[in-house]
Each structure stands twice: as structure tokens, then as C-alpha cells.
Design brief:
The complex is a heterodimer of chains A (839) and B (510). Chain A is of the alpha+beta class. Helices cover 57% and strands 11% of the residues of chain B. In chain B, the strands form 4 sheets. In chain B, strands 2-1-3-4-5 form a 5-stranded parallel beta sheet. In chain B, strands 6-7 form a two-stranded antiparallel sheet. In chain B, strands 8-9 form a two-stranded parallel sheet. Classes of the chains: A alpha+beta (839), B alpha/beta (510). Chain B: This is Vacuolar protein sorting-associated protein 33B isoform X2.
Amino acid sequence: MDCYTANWNPLGDSAFYRKYELYSMDWDLKEELRDCLVAAAPYGGPIALLRHPWRKEKAASVRPVLEIYSAAGVSLASLLWKSGPVVSLGWSAEEELLCVQEDGAVLVFGLHGDFRRHFSMGNEVLQNRVLDARIFHTEFGSGVAILTGAHRFTLSANVGDLKLRRLPEVPGLQSAPSCWTALCQDRAAHILLAVGPDLYLVDQAACSAVTPPGLTPGVSSFLQMAVSFTYRHLALFTDTGHIWMGTASLKEKLCEFNCNIRAPPKQMVWCSRPRSKERAVVVAWEKRLMVVGDAPESIQFVLDEDSYLVPELDGVRIFSRSTHEFLHEVPVASEEIFKIASMAPGALLLEGQKEYEKESQKADEYLREIQELGQLTQAVQQCIEAAGHEHRPDMQKSLLRAASFGKCFLDRFPPDSFVRMCQDLRVLNAVRDYHIGIPLTYSQYKQLTIQVLLDRLVLRRLYPLAIQICEYLRLPEVQGVSRILAHWACYKVQQKDVSDEDVARAINQKLGDTPGVSYSDIAARAYGCGRTELAIKLLEYEPRSGEQVPLLLKMKRSKLALSKAIESGDTDLVFTVLLHLKNELNRGDFFMTLRNQPMALSLYRQFCKHQELETLKDLYNQDDNHQELGSFHVRASYAAEERIEGRVAALQTAADAFYKAKNEFAAKATEDQMRLLRLQRRLEDELGGQFLDLSLHDTVTTLILGGHNKRAEQLARDFRIPDKRLWWLKLTALAALEDWEELEKFSKSKKSPIGYLPFVDICMKQHNKYEAKKYASRVGPEQKVKALLLVGDVAQAADVAIEHRNEAELSLVLSHCTGATDGATADKIQRARAQALKK
Amino acid sequence: MAFHLRPDAPELPDFSMLKRLARDQLIYLLEQLPGKKDLFIEADLMSPLDRIASVSILKQHEVDKLYKVEINKPVLSSSEQLCFLVRPRIKNMRYIAHLVNTDKLAGRTRKYKVIFSPQKFYACEMVLEEEGIYGDVSCDEWAFSLLPLDVDLLSMELPEFFRDYFLEGDQRWINTVAQALHLLSTLYGSFPNCYGIGRCAKMSYELWRTLEEEEEGETKSRRPEIGHIFFLDRDMDFVTALCSQVVYEGLVDDTFRIKCGSVDFGPEVTSSDKSLKVLLNAEDKVFSEIRNEHFSNVFGFLSQKARNLQAQYDRRRGMDIKQMKNFVSQELKGLKQEHRLLSLHIGACESIMKKKTKQDFQELIKTEHGLLEGFSLRESTSYIEEHIDRQVSPIESLRLMCLLSITENGLIPKDYRSLKTQYLQSYGPEHLLTFSNLRRAGLLTEQAPGDTLTAMESKVSKLVTDKAAGKITDAFSSLAKRSNFRAISKKLNLDYKAELTLAQRQPFAL
């Protein structure tokens, strides 16, 4: 244990820096790193190398190779570069590789070397070529900044939502700036560049000269500049060998250090962490690495090999041909515990626990000492925290063991911080594994969140590990396992060598009915890879028909979409598909499709009825639906036509259609209507008054009321009005006219087919008792009682009823016996009843 | 509805929640158009709206003037903001489009908001788009699908459902039904027992289940307040709807039309010169006692009630001052109220009597009875003929014809023709279309050869007596296709057990 702090290097009074190995690299590089374009993604991301860059004037015939490695140097992809010369490489926040070409085109590759897309940085860039390019990260995503041959800058703050912005010209800029960088401040991207002794800040609107406060005079050029991971700090390396450090806003100076080396450094990056005690800059030359902070002395390392620095949130990764190391400021908790002769509670607890394992009584002494100071809680917390910052599992374990040991002597120590740390470390150790190669530190992991880490595992196609992590952390299915399964399925559909059936079956077997998995999304991916058949198969598993439809439409499987939409029961969806079909198919095919889908057909008909009458007619025509066609024309005769000729013509068409439909009845009725219409028109011309659109019955009534009896008779004969109707009609009309003479004549014209009770009834309704009585005598025997009651002759009604010996009639009469006047009659009936019973 | 509850019956769910929900949503929608606005309401929605939000509530939310949507009438509103509360119908869209386009021509810009109730349809939005005003109006939905009419009665107030579904075969409202069921089950717990009959019932049920399943995880298992739910397609039982009403409530509806649980009593009922809007529900103590009574008993009941009331009034004769004070402060108000209601209902009874005696109500009931029981068919047919000849009432004549058709499993061809001819002569040739529609809906059909009553009956009896459980379902689906009223009612009457089995073995009983 004595040597644990051996790799700690003090910087100034308060901080220590340590460097430890992450991996020994698996790769077998043939070239020196310096001969390659190198890009490494932050958060333990992958490394991309492009060998044989063009600047090394090799034979043009040799195609360069683009290689992608994990942080442990495991090869992920290797492909021949077939496109134009590349100026710069960089990783986006989604771990996509952006390759900026000399002509301003940016090619985007996936982690596995799969080409995703490309975009251009604009015409101006194309004309002037790209001199230099930077890929930077902002809160919106990843940006690209380009310096063109005309010494102008073009940038896009988010390549996901490409908006190119050309920055204003820098006055007097004749040659390329000695160094420049992209800065993100106040949600906007700027460029900071150095020209000779001057610094300029260029934003969208203007270019302004800036000066770093407190810079040692005598600078004639800036050789290198570095912005911290969070864009909060800036470091400048001057040709006088000074390193100026300050805030990125250039308002405040942190410190300045004279390193006495005038050679331009190969790389310079910030090495700090959130709540850093001593911010430092790491500067690399060919053989030398220097950590510089606000201290008179710097830390120096010798570089055996050509190395590359990757700035991280809480340190710097340094990789070379053979190793991959991490350099960072020792976190507070670790420092407290492991500092030589530390008396911090955590340090005591760790010692105590060790003694306890040795079964030594010293353990008790240590514990007592902590408890006397009342710092046991703090000690446990320190151990837990320090465990998080340890890279080696054995150290993590011994710290956690100490924490757990200390916990035993505490009454109420909430267990969740301990448990969570154990879980987090287990996850971290798993992803740090050589095969996975994501060397995340605890702080980076917390910054990145588990969701993003899972996404990155998915990107690396490490589905089983991702699922295991989800299950281990008990993440909700929708966010965890099913999301990963969905990604897996999306990857699976891209395996072109496996047959559609097998892929579909494999996917369904794994996914089953896992909640939150959208088969339609997977199907959309399959369609995106050109596997339409597979997409359709996958859609079959989608339980929500509504989700199937849009994709089916996209795949031009409109008919299938139609039946799915109908299945879903969502008429809006059906309608959407219908409109799609209408535009896609020719009219005939469209109608044929409709014909096989009655539900869709009626929906479309409903729409046409209001919006497209002509289409409706065509629909009926197509189906040879003459019945409906007839109805259609009848309707049209009312709605569309004003003139009588037009109406008759429409009706004629309707009648023809009815004949075709073998609906003789409707055809005849329509013809009758035509006749009636013409006749009514003639009547209006000859007699005046309103006849049009009256029913036949009403027409005749109107004629009688108008005194045109002859005409009425004629009409009744022409249209063969049945006798019964004619009698009712005349009776009602004459009574309304109160033409009692004519009514009597009519009643005697022949025997009434409707009997004479209606005559009595109608006279009474007109309050003519006298006339009513006349007819009452003529009413047939079976209705006599009713007639007599109608005219109010209760006594006689009773007599008739008794005569008939009809029980129903008797009670009917009885119910009409009211008051004293009919008392006698009532008695009579009762007597008759009694008699009938006796018999 | 409104059966007197047994003392041990569980309490009814609180349906007024639905009303509050609808009101809050409407207010929210109105508030989305801040400032003064004129509200255009479709005639169909007026009565339901009345039950949800009074005019004063609307005014509180800055509704300035209220208009009825009247197609082909000029719009007089001068407000800068117009809000339309309409059903999702294409003709309404055209009305709005016309209005907006007129404004545009006049160079006028106003704000337009269309609120669809109970939901919007894609077709409507498309019409707006075709008319070129989609961008000018904002569309919203007022998902008001269930209106509590009484403590135990909810209505969807969807008058177009019948025509759209049973005549035109348009299934768009089924989704609305499913949504309403979903709302009910969210508010009052999922229904443990579901039964149903008919195609539409099945579709509604299935759609509703899909909705439920999509949210399965979220709904907590709570005690269901609604124990059983029955889905019935109207076309499974046209007969009930076609028969004359004989109970008091039905006759009030017949005579005065009950709209959304309230009725307008005209001057002849109120015995004053004003008409009066009366809410008919369980809160009306007089009404709730007579609503389900046969009309012939109602008069007797009312006069008994009047006597009781008189007796109560009379009690005050012998009272001392203290008792009198009590009486005035506590009972008098209730008595006065009851008095008022009593006189209203007596007035209504008189009106009904007057109307019904004019139409030979007795004869009518006798004929219907004959049709239902299947005797004196000839007399019934000639009664209907006479009914038509005398032009008694176009709708009543049709009702009788349909009843005849359904009870007889279609008219015999001769009657089918002659009745139709008579009808056209009496009421006008345009009814040719009516007949075509009735035929499509299966309300008035011609007997197909071989579908005579006896043939159908034997078929049904064979199916029903077949006790094999699985076959009952087949029986039902074949019944559903062409239900024979007489045969079914006979079977159900004869064999109580058969009824039970049928009720339990529905196509989708749970």
C-alpha cells in the first residue's frame, strides 16, 4: 500500500495529478500516429484513424484506409477510402464519424463504418476548398467549423439540423491564422483566432479584436490555443514560451506559466474536472508531456511514443501505439484517504477495516478514534465516494468493504448511496472491460446518464450486455429492455443474408408482446433497407392496426392498408387511405377496390353524397346498381331541376334505371309521377292555383274543394284511384265544404264501400247532428251502436245493443251512460245483462 | 328507467360528474379564444348544450351573442371572433367555408374557431381544405359524448347514428361509442360483465376493448360501480320502437317531444298564455310516480293525488299559531311545488287525451295488438289501408306498415305493392325514396318466397331446441341476419329456460 501514491504528482500545494493505464492497446498499427488523421470521441468513445493522408504526397494510386477502433484498440471497422481528400475527422455527440473533405462535403459514418449520409458545407466552401476544419460539441448537438482557402469561416452549430452560417470577414487576414478554435458561449458558436500578435473573436454579426488580460508582453504570435471541455476556460501558448490561462470570455486571467520551450506544441488540452482544485493544461511535444497549472513547477512526463491527447470531462486520455492512459487530478475523497499520513476519517476507517481483517485489536482503536470525533458517517461517505473514483476493482472492493464495515457501527445510515455505488461500479466495470472498451470514469458516467450509455452499447451492437444492465438495474421495461430489443430488431432486419421468414420469426420470438415495442417502427426500418416483404411480415405482428396503415401506404401497399384501416375501425384512417387510393389508382381500379370493401364504399358514398355527386353516380354506374341510380335521379329531380321539363326528364332517366333494376313498381310509380307532374302543370295553367308537388290525393281534394268535380272524376279515373279512397276523399272534402246536399247525393250514388259510419262521424265532427242522424239510420247493423252513440242517442243504442245481445256493445253503451239522464237506460242494460246471464 | 329502488340496491354512480366534465372542457375550449366572441350553435346541439352550460355560464366566458347555425341564411354577427359549435357534418363545413370566404372577399379578417362535438372527422377537415380555408380556422374537439338525462339514464345524443349506421352502413360513430364506453369505465371502473347482440354491438365492444388494452397498465383496479353492461343493436328490436306508446312518459314524448329530458308544455297545458320548459326526471316527484304507469291509470292516480294534496292543505284549518308557523315554513313550499307540478301533468294528460281520441286510439292499439299476436291479419291490413286513405298521419301510417312488415317477416308481394301505391297517392310520390330507404334498413320489406312464417318458425325452433352449447351461437348469428320477430317471441314466451340460455350465450359474452 505504501506505493499506492507513487504515481501521484503534486501540482502546486493542493492538488495531485495521477496517470494510470486503461488498456494496453490491442491494435497493430503499421504507421505512426503522426502520419494519420486521428479522431477520438469523448466519454471513452471510439478512435478513428485515416492512414495515408494526402498531405504525405504518396502515390495517388494507393487508396487510404479508414479504420475505427474501440478505446481498447479493438478494431470495429476498416474500409478503403474511395472518396475525395479528407481534411479533418471528428465524432459527433451521437458517435457518428464526420469526415470533412477538401471540397466541403461532409461524409457521415456509423461506428461500424457504415455510411449514413453526407451533406455539403455550401458552394462558397466548395469553391475555395477547405483549409482546416473542427468538429465541436454544443448543447444542441455537434457542430462543424470550416476555414476556407479564402480565409473565411463557415460553421453549422448542429449537423443534425443543418443551418450554414458564413461568418464575417476578419479584417486584414491575408494568410491562415496561426491557430483558431470554436467557442460556444451563450448558446451561440463563435470562432476565436490568432493572427500574429492579435486575437479576434468572430461571431455571426461581427468580428472584434480581443486581448487576454495580463498577458506578458512581447508576444508576436500565438502558437496553440485550447478551450476547456465545458468552454469555460481558455489557454494560449505564445511564441515566447508562455502559457496564458484564463476564462474563455477573456475577462479574467487565472495564471501564466513560462515553460521555456518555444517550439510549438503538438497538442494542448485542458485537464480539469468539475470543482477542480487546480485547473491545469496538458501540453504535449514529440517526446515530452507537461502538466501546467497555477504553480511555479510543472509536472513533466517523458513520452516514449508518439501519443495523442483526448480531453475528457474530468481528465485527459492519452493513447499511443501500445498504451492507453488516463491523466487526471486526484479526486478529493481519494486524496483524503490515500494521502500519505492522512488522518481523514475515511483513511482511518480504511486502516481500521484492514486491521479488522487481520483480526487485530487496532481496528477498535481506529474506530474509536473516528467515533470520538463523530465522523463515522463522513468516513463511510468518503469511502463510498473514493471507491467510485478507483479504476481497479480490487481497490473499489477494499474501499467498499471499509464503508460496509463502518456502516455496521452507525445507527441510521441510509443504504441507498452504498447500494447505488455498488450497482454503478458493477456497470462501469462491465463496460470498461477490454472487449467492450468504454473507459468511462464515474463522473463521466453520471454526466452521460445510464440512458445514453445504453444507447452507446446499442450503437456498438452489444445488445445482450445492454439488456443485462437493464435487468440488473431494474429499469422499467419501456425505457429499458424493450427499447433495446427494438433496436436489436432494427439491426436484425438489416442482415441481408437471412431470409425474411427467419428474421421475422426471430424478431417475434424475442420480442413477443413486450410492451412499448413498436413493430411498425421495426417494419419501417426494414422498409428503409429495401425489404418490403419483411416489413409487411413484421407489420402482421403489430397489434394496433392504426400503426400499420401509414407505413403500408408508404410502401404503396394501399389495398392492404385499406383492409388494415377497416380492421382498426377508425373511419378517419379508412378515409385517409381512400384519398390516397383515389390519387394513386385510376378511377376504374379505385372503384373496383371499393367494391370489395363495403365499409369503405359506404364511407366514400357518404362523402360523395355531400361533396361529389357526379362521382356517386359513377359509383352506382360502375356497380350496375340501377336501383340506387334510379333513386339518385329521383333525388336529382327534386334537388337540381327547377323547370318542369327538366324534372320530367330526370324522372324519365330514373324510370329507365328502375326498369333495368327490374323494379317495375318503382318504374311505374315514377311514370305516374311524371304524368301527375305534367297534369298538375296543365291544371295550374288552366285553373290557376297551386297544384305542383301535391300528392294525387291532395290534387283531387283541391279540385273538389275548388268545385271542379268533373275534373276530379276524370283524374280519379285516369289514375285508377280505388273506390274506397275516392269515397273517403270526397266525403272529407264535401264535409269540409259543408256541401251537405252534394254529400247526400254522393252517398246515394251507390252503396258506400266504406260503410256509413264515417259519414256520421264526419258530420258530427262538423257539428251537424241533423245530417249525422240521416246517415246513422243507414249504418249497417254491426256498427249501428257506435253510430247511435256518436249522434248521442244513448237510449236507442241501448235498445239495439240489447237486441244484438252483444256483451261488448252493452258495456260500450254503459260506459257512455253519464249522469242522471241516462239512468233509466243504464238500468235497462243491467237488467238485460242479468237476463242474459240467467239464460 | 327510474324504477323505484329496492332498499338494498347499491347506490347509483354519480353521473353528474359527466356533466361537470363536459362543462369544464367546453369552458376550456371557449377560453382558448380569449375576448368577446359570438357562438354559433347547431340546432341539434342546442338542447344538449342547455343541459350542460346555461347562457349565463357562456356569458361569463365572454360569449357575446348566440346564433343558431342556419344553412342558407345570412350571418348577421359583427363580432371579430366567431366560434362554431357543430357536429362533424360536411354541410356545416360548407356553411363555415361560405362564411369565411364571404369575409375574405369583403377584405375582412376575423378569428374563426370550429368546435366539433363529439369529435372531428378527417372528411370534415378535408372539406375545409378543399374550400381553401383550412388555415383560417382553428379546429377543436369537444369530446362530449354522454349526457346524463336522469339519475339513472345517460344518452349519447347522436341522432344521426341510426341513419348513418343502419341505412348507410357508415361505421364512423362506432368509434365514438367506444370512446364513450372508455370514458365510463375510466370514471366508474371497468365493467365486469358484458353482454350484447348485433353486429354494431360487437364492433363497439371490440373497439372499446382495444382502447382499454392500450391503457391497461395505467388503469388501477378499482371497485366497478357498473356491474353489467348490455349492448343492443336497434335492428335487433325494431318492434318496441314501432309500437304505440302507452305509458305516461311515452305519450308525453309522443305529444310534446321530450328533448334531452326536458319538454316544452304549450299554453294549452300550462293554462296561461306562455309555454313552459319542464325538466322531466326523478326530481319531479309527481312525474316519477306516473312516468311508467299505463296511461289509463294515470288519471285516477292524479285525481287521488289531488285529493291528498287538498287534505294536506286542509290540515291547516285546525292548527294553532305555532303549528301554522311550522306548516308555512316547512311544508307549504313543498305543497305549492307539488300543486304546480300536479296541475301541469293534469294539463298534459288532457292534451294527450284530446289528441288520442281524435285518432281512434282504441282502434290503433287493437290493430297493433293484432299484429304483435299475429291474429286478424286481414283486418289489420285493411285498417292500415284505411289509415293511409284517410291521410291520418304520414308517419303513423309508415309506422304501422313497418310493424306489419316486421311482425310478418316482410309483406306479401300483393300487399307490399298496394300499400305502397296507396301511400304514394296519399302522401306524395317523393316517398318512393322513403320506401327504398326503409327497404335497405330492413324496416319495410317484401317477403321472399320460401321465407314464409311457418318455414322460419320451424327453423328457429330447431335451432333453439338444439341444446348443444356451441350451436346456440350459430343460431344467434343466423337469427341476427334475418330475425323473425314472431318466431323468437313465441319461443321466448314458451320456454323460459331457452331465454336464459340465449341471453347468456351471446356472440361475445364474457
